[in-house]
Amino acid sequence: MLDKIFNLNALAFVVKLDQLLEVLVTTLIFVVIGLIFLIISFFILDRLTPFSIRKEIEDDQNTALGVVIGSMLIGVAIIIAAAKAEIPAVI
Fold first, then answer.
1. Rounded to an integer, what distance in angstroms lies between the CA atom of residue 70 and that of residue 57?
2. Please, which residues have CB within 8 angstroms of residue 40's CB and are 6 or more apart in sequence?
3. CA–CA–CA angle 27, 30, 32 (5° rounding)
4. Cα–Cα distance between 31 and 37 in angstroms, integer?
5. CB-hemisphere CA count at 13 Å for 23?
6. Is the pLDDT assigned to residue 68 strictly greater than 70?
7. 37, 76 contact by CB (below 8 A)
8. 8 Å CB contact between 84 and 41
9. 13-30: pLDDT as tens digits
10. Measured distance between the N- and C-terminal CA atoms of the chain, rounded to whole angstroms
């Protein structure tokens, strides 16, 4: 009866309640590590540029620099996500 109401194959991806805490802790650790790498990469870019990124974006309304910074952050985020995907699952 439940087979017809629910797709049981889709329910196989639900985390069991006793493993939920372990999965949440692992996810939070990777979120913190990812944010640290994003902040470090932004500060490296800020130090490498000969001008103030904050002044260019806020005061001079330099949209192109905002797009470049955003693209750089997205690129680093993709690398971090790919690195997390390579680590074996806890479950």
1. 12
2. none
3. 110
4. 10
5. 10
6. yes
7. yes
8. no
9. 566 767 777 877 888 888
10. 29
Q: Using CA atoms, how far apart are residues 84 and 56, in angstroms rounded to an integer?
A: 34
User: Which single residue is written with the structure tokens 């905002």?
Assistant: 66
The candidate with the shortest Cα–Cα distance to 62, out of 70, 53, 71, is 53
The three-state secondary structure class of 19 is helix
Residue 11, token pair as written in the block: 């329910």
Q: Are 91 and 23 in contact (CB under 8 A)?
A: yes
H or E element at residue 46: helix 17-48
Lowest mean pLDDT among 4-8, 23-27, 37-41, 64-68: 4-8
Residue with tokens 């260019």: 56
The DSSP 8-state label assigned to residue 90 in this structure reads -
> Any idea which residue has 């902040």 for tokens?
39
